[in-house]
Design goal:
It is a single chain. This protein is 14% helix and 26% strand. With 78 residues, it is of the alpha+beta class. Strands 3-2-1-4 form a 4-stranded antiparallel beta sheet, with no helix packed on it. A hairpin with a 4-residue loop joins strand 2 and strand 3. The radius of gyration is 13 Å and the shape is globular. The model has no long low-confidence stretch (mean pLDDT 90).
């Protein structure tokens, strides 16, 4: 039986991608989009600077860690 790992990583910063969508920078070195696109993704906190700042340290599941992927390239955090 194959066990699936679930790796939780803290948000350490943010940047925007080439389309202007917010991307969380995780403590593990991976990046993860954090879009607010109701009704599919309900993350109203991502739409304001105060909301994003309030989520620093919040844990997100990192699928890239689960897959053993190498760290992502990162632009400067905003």
């Amino acid at each position: 039986m194959l066990l699936r790992r679930s790796m939780q990583q803290p948000i350490t910063g943010y940047h925007t991608d080439e389309e202007g969508d917010w991307v969380a920078q995780l403590g593990c070195g991976h990046n993860q989009h954090v879009r607010h696109t109701p009704p599919w993704m309900n993350r109203p906190w991502v739409t304001t600077a105060a909301g994003r700042a309030g989520m620093i340290g919040h844990l997100l599941q990192c699928k890239k860690c689960d897959e053993g992927a190498a760290a992502d390239a990162r632009p400067e955090a905003k």
